Hints:
Blueprint: E1 4-8, H1 14-21, E2 30-34, H2 35-41, H3 43-51, E3 56-62, H4 66-78, E4 83-87, H5 91-102, E5 111-115, H6 123-130, H7 136-149, E6 154-156, H8 159-169, E7 174-177, H9 196-201, E8 206-209, H10 211-214, H11 219-230
Parallel strand pairs: 1-2, 1-8, 2-3, 3-4, 4-5, 5-6, 6-7, 7-8
Helix pairs in contact: 4-5, 7-8
The structure holds cytidine-5'-monophosphate.
Amino acid sequence: MGKDVIIACDFASAAETFAFLDRFTGRKPFVKIGMELFYAEGPAIVRELKSRGHKIFLDLKLHDIPNTVKKAMAVLSRLDADVVNVHAAGTTAMMEAALEGLTRPDGTRPLLIAVTQLTSTDQAAMERDLLIREPIADVVMHYAETAKNAGLDGVVCSPLEAERVHETCGRGFLTVTPGIRFADGEIGDQKRIMTPAEAKRIGSDYIVVGRPITKADDPVAAYERCIAEFVG
Ligand code: C5P
């Protein structure tokens, strides 16, 4: 797995997803499937996209007791997703159980990354609702270190945090960064953003790009622009 652009396929149905991906003739983009599409279409959507040749980041953010997560991860591993994730807040025991569940009899497994603190959570909400009083940037780094110590492969984080995650956890620990916008594009509801070129400069391993590609007049051209800025 190297540097790549992952398209967030935030569509409501398989039909919409396939209509979108059919535009990419000769290209098989790495795609992210989230809760909406997975809950609507079930495992069949993963099998179908795999059979069409796409790599898949299954963004289901598991967070439960270790035994439940282990069993659920064994199912996702058999689906042959390439990247799956959990909440680091589930603790070391849960992350270790997730890894165990993911690992196939032949020793192979999908990559497992952790969600640290959701970017929708701010300092005030974290203190008020979770009683966590440390600075949020330190909390994010602590979650990243905990994930690394549990044996995970990386984290989903803001591109603004990627450099510090690499400093703290090492260059080989993957940073998968959403919040990507073109310099001349619409920002929408994202707040802390970077361009694909900036994300490349700060060392993101994968960028997750949704609306700048899915809502573009020419999604294929927008994807190629992401590839050119981030990979090329
Ligand atoms: O459309 P946009 O490029 O903003 O999509 C970004 C994708 O990354 C969405 O699927 C969103 O749910 C996801 N994401 C995010 N911020 C996080 C974690 C995931 O934007 N912290």
